[in-house]
Design brief:
single chain, about 500 residues, alpha+beta, eight-stranded mixed sheet, five-stranded antiparallel sheet, elongated
């Protein structure tokens, strides 16, 4: 079963052509292989409709009116717009104004449980603290705007505000959904406070607790490896059992993600250290799973593969020195050897995007990563990479540096065929390749591998390699580049 599970997960993201199974006693040659994956109505009725498939929203921060909407889940932190499910005005008992009305507006933001960290009205962060909301204390709102927040617990009370509506009752709990309700009475000069009408509520939330195999417990985290594991096991992701996963590899990568990285320029909060690989953002349940998986992997330079026991395993994010050397005596041939410009050196600048908390939690373009040596020979050739789940400029630059090294190797060796003596290289992240006849004696990363079997006998090992060394992962804080300037509206 584990082998079949691993094949299913890897095959879904386009690797089924290199995955096979060994059938004992087959006379014809059989290929067994792996490859790495490297790698965004009435409220009660609406609450039920929210659980049905719907069209994907392009921007999780936008608030919309939509009869049937997809569920959205936050991993790490996320700034969330919502889908309006209640919009009502009622007469206000005001002896000075018999036309005064009170506004009620409810919006579902994501599935829970989550923690609500901040409340925003439009593009303005309010002074409401974390938790269940209350009267907005900022003077501009004159004490006449309140926001009620519900975190999406499995059992949560119905909205006290909406119970004032004639069609709402205690059974309308919207369990499992994080939602907000705005209650607003008329403001003096309200058109100046809200020139575009009642503002949308956005919530900055911290996602649900995730399982950490290092502790055996559940807790909030933005550790990129732990959130990758969460998606692989969650019902909205791949739904794998923990027994189908090589948990030690996730422990190892999680420890890498938690390593401190110095910042040469303190962030706007004054922090001078951040964790190596964090992961923020959301996904909706109608997205292609491979797309979500790709974003999660990209946040930590992660690679999924199937281990020798058929379990789904992960590696990446750091340099792993080779433990095996391939020499000329093992080589039966290869399909293609490219060096220098021939080795797919098709770009010399990486333009990259990340999610910046200092720019309204929007995808933000970072300082490009340049290969100055290649640019001196070929000029500036741009490509774009998305690290949208990376919540810092430094992290995005580190990932861009790794992507440049992998995308522009000095050597690329495709279809390297080895005798059975090369079997120890199979499944390894890196190898040393010593080919003195071709002037090659350096380290390579293994991108794909297959075993050729004749019955139960191994006939050859076939690998695709790119040259890679520790310099791709070495980091000097001076390399973090120029962080985008803060916007005038930053608060």
């Amino acid at each position: 079963m584990p082998a079949a599970v691993g094949i299913a997960v890897l095959g879904e993201v386009g690797l089924s052509s290199v995955i096979g199974t060994t059938i004992a006693g087959v006379a014809a040659e059989t290929l067994v292989g792996y490859a790495t994956i490297v790698g965004g109505a009435a409220a009660l009725q609406y609450g039920a409709q929210l659980l049905q498939p719907g069209q994907k929203r392009a921007d999780s921060q936008v608030t919309v009116r939509q009869a049937i909407a997809p569920r959205r889940r936050v991993l790490g932190q996320g700034m969330m717009g919502g889908v309006i499910f209640a919009l009502e005005t009622m007469d206000l008992d005001d002896p000075d104004d018999d036309k005064a009305r009170i506004l009620y507006r409810g919006a579902v933001h994501c599935v829970g449980p989550v923690q609500i960290l901040q409340y925003w009205l439009g593009d303005v962060k309010t002074s409401l603290g974390a938790g269940g909301g209350g009267i907005v204390p900022d003077s501009a709102y004159q004490g006449k705007v309140a926001i009620e927040g519900h975190t999406g617990e499995d059992s949560q009370p119905a909205s006290a505000a909406l119970l004032k509506l004639p069609y709402w009752n205690d059974s309308m709990q919207l369990n499992g959904l994080c939602y907000s309700v705005v209650v607003a009475t008329p403001l003096k000069k309200g058109s100046q406070v809200f020139p575009e009408g009642a503002p949308d509520v956005r919530l900055l939330v911290a996602g649900a607790p995730s399982y950490d195999p290092r502790t055996g417990g559940y807790a909030y985290t933005d550790n990129a490896a732990i959130l990758l594991l969460d998606y692989l096991t969650h019902d909205s992701g791949y739904g794998l059992a923990l027994s189908e996963i090589n948990l030690q590899t996730f422990r190892d990568l999680a420890n890498v993600c938690d390593q401190p990285v110095a910042l040469i320029t303190p962030d706007p909060n004054g922090d001078t250290i951040e964790l190596r690989y964090r992961s923020w953002g959301s996904y909706d349940f109608t997205e292609q799973r491979a797309d979500v998986l790709g974003r999660l992997l990209a946040a930590c330079d992660g690679e999924l593969y199937q281990d020798a026991g058929g379990l789904v395993a992960v590696r990446g994010g750091r340099w792993q020195p080779p433990t095996f050397t391939i020499d000329e005596s093992m080589i039966q041939g290869w399909e293609q050897l490219e060096e220098g410009d021939e080795a797919y050196n098709t770009f010399t600048r990486i333009k990259h995007t990340y999610t910046s908390p200092w720019h309204d939690y929007q995808p933000t373009e970072g300082d490009p990563w340049d290969d100055s040596f290649a640019q001196a020979e070929q000029g500036v050739i741009e490509t774009e990479k998305s690290f949208v789940r990376a919540p810092s400029h430094s992290q995005s630059r580190r990932l861009a540096k790794i992507a440049m090294a992998k995308g522009n190797p000095r050597f690329r060796l495709t279809g390297l065929r080895l005798s059975p003596a090369g079997l120890p290289a199979y499944g390894e992240p890196t190898v040393m390749l010593n080919l003195p006849s071709f002037g090659i004696n350096t380290t390579f990363a293994i991108m794909r591998g297959t075993l050729a079997m004749a019955g139960n006998a191994l006939t050859s090992v076939k690998l695709d390699l790119i040259s890679l060394d520790a310099s791709a992962y070495a980091w000097n804080p001076a390399e973090e580049g120029q962080r985008p300037p803060l916007p005038d509206t930053y608060n």
